[in-house]
Amino acid sequence: MNVRKFFRSFRYAMEGIFTAVNEQNFRFHLVSAIIVIIAGVLTGLTIVEWSIIVLIIFLVIGAELINTAIERVVDLASPEFHPIAKQAKDIAAGAVLVFALASVIIGLLIFLPKWL
Ligand SMILES: Nc1ncnc2c1ncn2[C@@H]1O[C@H](COP(=O)(O)OP(=O)(O)OP(=O)(O)O)[C@@H](O)[C@H]1O
């Protein structure tokens, strides 16, 4: 295994994450994640509940990263309006929405019984 190549790939991946931080949607997910973590600390969650919350936070952020990558590729391949380009962007955004909806439902299932 080439260790230098591995660390170089890691650095590029981190660059990708920092590039996406400039996206408004990505920041929205980050702020939402911080609010959920604070709520979790104040409410008191079990290890299993924390594991589920952490998993869903990373899944939503990962989905947003893939969505941003797809947006960039579409902008590169089709700077002019094209119905297929629209479908690609809208479907990628739809994927993030599906993950975000799942995270809201899971959040309600975990937090609501403790708060009520
Ligand atoms: N090349 C294109 N061809 C057809 N429709 C497009 C194209 N680019 C964008 N769209 C449509 O416009 C919407 C908004 O696109 P826009 O590029 O403004 O934002 P985005 O790429 O979704 O996100 P961001 O603002 O973070 O780059 C898309 O969801 C899509 O429906």
Automatic annotation (TrEMBL):
Topology of this chain in the membrane: Multi-pass membrane protein
Membrane-traversing stretches: 28-46, 52-70, 91-112
Localization annotation: Cell membrane
Pfam family of the protein (one): DAGK_prokar
Record's keyword terms, sorted: ATP-binding, Cell membrane, Kinase, Lipid biosynthesis, Lipid metabolism, Membrane, Nucleotide-binding, Phospholipid biosynthesis, Phospholipid metabolism, Transferase, Transmembrane, Transmembrane helix
Top-level taxon: Bacteria
Protein name: Diacylglycerol kinase family protein
Organism of derivation: Solibacillus faecavium
